[in-house]
Structure formats: C-alpha cells, structure tokens
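Re: the multi-chain job from yesterday

Posting the exact lines I submitted so nobody has to dig through the queue logs.
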Amino acid sequence: MSQGHDVWQAMTAERFGPLYARLWLRLEQLLGSPTTMEIIALSTETLQDAYPFLSRLRWRSQGLERATLMQAIADQENPHVQAGCERLLQEVYVLIETCYGQALALQLQAEIEQLRQSSDPSLSPLTKGSREVATTPWSETPEQAWQVLQTLGQHSLKLYRRHRDTQNELNRARFELDTLRQAASSVAIASAAAPSTPTELARSETFYHDLFELSPDGVIVTDTKGVILQANARCAEILELDSPAELIGCSVSQFLVYPEQREAFLERISQSDRVEGQRRELRTQRGRTIIIVFSSRLIQYEGQSCLLSVVRDVTERARLAQEMADFAYSASHDLQAPLRTFEGYARWLLEDYGDGLDEMGRQLCEEIIDDALHMKKLLDGLLEYSRIGRVHTRAVEVDVAAVLERVQHDLQIEIFDTKARLMLPETLPTVLYPEVRLTQIFTNLLSNALKFTAAGRAPEIVVDYEALPRHYRFAVRDNGIGIAPEHTERIFEIFKRLHTREEYPGTGAGLTIVKKIVESHGGQIGLSSTPGAGSTFWFTIPRTEDAP
Amino acid sequence: MSQQTVLLVEDNPRDVRLTQRAFKQAQLTHALRVVRDGDEALAYLNREGMYQDPAESPRPNVILLDLNLPRMGGHEVLKRVKRDPRFRHIPIIVLTTSGRSDDVRLAYEHGVNAYLLKPVEFTRFTEVVEQLGKFWLETVELPPTV
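And the result, structure tokens for all chains:
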C-alpha cells in the first residue's frame, strides 16, 4: 500500500468521523438509540450493493466505532469511499424526511453542514446559501411535540421497512420470472429444431424408448425411497429376472448386499444432485453376488423427485482384475526362487572355485549375480504393481508436509550426492489418502528428479500444489534432462525405459506404480517437459473421497 | 550334553543346499536335519517310517519351516504342530520368500515363534541365518526335548 493511500484513508476518517458522531448524537438525543440504530441500518442496507464497504462499519449504542471506518475503507478506492460516505449522510436525511418530515431533516442537514464547514469550508458539497434554512434551535421545540414525533417516526420506520422488503421480494420475483422466460424461450428454440409436429414428437419418443431398451447398461428410475418406477431390459438381465416388469414396485434395498450403504448415498445425492462411479455388491434374484458400478442423477420424473441411475455389471471385470493381480503376485513370487539359486550358486562358484576360473570366468559369474539381482528388482516392481489394486490401503488424514519431510529424509544421500536444491511450498494441505501410497508417489517422483539430471547442472527441484475446487494438484518440477514429447506416454508403461541401465539405473516400474496409485485413488497424472531443460510431473488427489 | 538339532522343512533341494552353506558360513555347528514336505515333517516328529531311530532322527530343538510346500502347505504343518500337545513347545521359525501380510498374519495366528524372509542375495541370506542361529540357538533358553 502506498504512502498516499494511507494518507487519504486517515483524512477520510478525520473528515467523516466527526460528522457521523454528530449525526448519531443528535438522532439519539431526539429519537433514542434503538431507533437511531434502525435508521442507520436501513440507510446502510439501501446502499449495500453500491457501496459494500458501508456494511462493514460497526455502529453501537455509543455511535460509530471509528476504527471500523479505517478498516472498511482499507482496500477501497478513494473516490468510491468519498461518494459512499457522502451517500450515507444523504440517505439518512432522506429517511428522516420520509419518516419525520422535512423540517427535521433540513435541521439535521444544516447542523451537519455547519460542522463540516467549521472544520473545512472547502469540503462542503453545498454552496453557501443554496439551502438556507430558517432553523429553529433544537431546544425550543416543545417536549410533547418530540414525543409525538418519535412515536410517529417509529411507525413510519416500520412501514418503510415493510414497504422496502415487499419491493425487494417483488424484484426477486421479477428476476426469477425473467430467468424462467429465458429458459423457456431457449427450450422453444431447441425444440423448434427438434420435434414440433406430433409425428416428430412420436418419433423422438420412440428414439428415447429404443435407447432405453437397447442400452448395454441397466437404466433404472427410483423414487427417493428406493422404490423402482422404471427399469430397462438390461436391468432385469443383470438382476437375473425374466422381465423388467418384475422390478417395478420393488425396493432396490432388497438387492443390496449391504443395504446400509444407501443412507450415505442418499445424503450425498441430496447435496450434489449427482453421484458418479459408485461400486456396490448386489444379490441377484437367483442369489448370485455380483459387482456393479453406477452413476445417479436427481431428476424430476412424473412430477416427483426421482433418481435416474445407469448401472453396469462389472463382476467379470472385477474377477479378471483379481485374477490378473493374483497371477502377477504368484508369478513374481515363484520366479524369485530360481533367482536365489542363480545368485547363490554364482557367488558360491566365485568364492570356492574362483581360483580355478580365469578372468573371463569370474566376470561371467559377476554378471549372473548382477542380472539375478536386477531381475529381483523387476519382480519387486511387478509385485508392488499387483499389490496396489489387490490390497486395499485405508485412506487417512495425511499431512503432506510430513510425508515430504520423510521422503526428503529417505533420499538425503541422493540429495547430498547430487548437491540438489529442493524447494517446498511454505504451506501444504492435509489430504485424505493412504499414507504409504502418498509416500510412494513422492519418493518415486523425487528420486526420478534426482536421477535424471543433466550433466554439469545441480538438480533444482520444486514441489508445488494448487487447491482446485474438486482436487489438489501437486507438481514436481526439475531441471533435468527432460523427456521428448513422443516418449511421454511410454514412460508410464511397466519396465519401459528410455535409457540403458548403465546410463541411469532402475527398472522402469516406478512411474507405472505411481500412475496406478494415482488413478486407483480417483486422480490423474501427467507431465510437461522440455527436452534438455527439465520436466514437471503433476498428479491430482480428489478433495472429497470420491474414489471408488 | 547332546548336540542341538534343527529340523529344516524345505522342498527345494537347491534351497536346502544354500541353507546348509549359510549354516556353515554362519559357523552354526548344529545338526541340520532336512525333510522335504509337510507329511515328512509330521512323520519325523511322530517317529514314523524312516524316522523311527531316535539316534538318526533326534527331537528337534527348533523347526525351520518353508511355507510354499507341495501337498500339505507350511501353514497346515504349523497349525498341526502347534495344536499337538507333544510338539507345541518346539519353536517354529518360518523362513520363506512370501512377504504377503496374509501369510504373516496367519502364521502368527497359528502360533509361529518368528517369521523371517529369505533374501535373494546370498550374503544377506547368510546374515539372516547367522542372526537366527545366534538368537534361537545361542541366546534364548529352549524348552528341553523329551
């Protein structure tokens, strides 16, 4: 904030403070402090759209709290503030005139203006003599007259407020009407292109009916209690019923393996009108347990609030995924056994028979050991990859700062060796995530940033994040060798590497694992890179636990 | 004072060979008896079949058990031995390549005394065997064999 800014604020407070104080003092003397408060509040309300800062002024029974004037105008523009402060005075005069008559209003105005001129004549908005008022000194007005005036004034204030509220209500209704009219006209425009004649309407109905019946997914409409109003053929098929008609009138709860999940679901849909990608276990009519995913919308159907849901049977997919994960697990596990022999025997050969081997023979043994250990790492990668989908890790409140601290600690040797500079944001959020998985993500991304460094350049790594409405977006930026655009897809594939093991060690499983973690928790991952200049890897974490 | 006996239940002859070498390298001089599956392990303990001679098949002080065994798996062997009042006092140490949490939990539920992972790298395997020997055969007080 510039010096000039501070000066005008202080001057404004100096200028209007005494005027408002006098205004308050006089009104309170005449009308009592509740009525005065009411008058000020009404005037401020009238001006709140044009001059929002006025609403931030605090008036108490002692008058205006001067400090709040300074605060209210702190980040405002000078002309705006001057106009607003002036308008508040005017508004009070108008209100007094409306409720208590012109005489009182003029008298009040004259007094305020006198005060203003006595402190700084140049500031008065009134030119001298423009509104000369023959003022009766306050004290000369008889006591009873005041009482009558006060009572009348309070009544008219009440009426005034009622009038204004009605006016506001009316305006709101007009606005809504306009919105509806606009919506209606856009529907009319849309339907002008679509079916307007009865034949076309019928055709369109047939179209939607066909769509409903042909859908490879189940489509179902229920009321908010879960009673089925409409279902397509596929729905009946999923639930192993002969016809969708058998579903009408049934409650969806009777098919849920865990009916208690419905309450949380209803709560969520009532808040957001839509729910996506929910997973449920159902028991079919024939007693088979199946797994489905569905998305729902709150819709208006035949005059009531209903749920439209699209249901997909993923039992087979889930089974295959499980089978695949189990296969990957046991494969990587069983493949380890021979590796132990390779490594152990080659070492045995070297230790006990090394003297009988020549240089080449010993070299070959060393290479067997090397490759066996590398294959062990590949299998570990595969094992970890299969574990992500297979083993459910519970999401907890995780302090990202603490996670990064631990990762930094784990990588301290690499950081020291590469003379890397690691920059973290000053604040980091707390997220709902399995802690071990978040640690894996950052460990992989940071160790990549430390590994793929450009020759002669110490790594500079910046971790940053953005809090977006639906998710957090974290980014790890480095100044390393970068990745050519044609390879950006490939680096996420398991065991795919862009370099030889001699150039940069590793298995090529790290980013695949990171991608799987991120995606299996409802997030996305990507990168931008300039070859030779560096890469930025980013990933997202949903802010609400929407992950399936 | 007779020599302490370790019973190794392991089906892979190469793993047996490596374990024997690791015992030697770790300078554990205990008698290592080897059976190749769960049935043989129970036969050994029950002194059945080829294990009838107490001099040839002394009661083990400690059992080293692989989980991945043909026919009767390691978990089943563990369960049976730990249920049998005659053998339940014998410390059983699982020595396996499986680090899956299900295996670890189940083994402890069945009363395993320790669960160790076999590292692929032989030098590290020797270290594990050495630690195992130091603790289970030299440090702890074992129940007397009957």
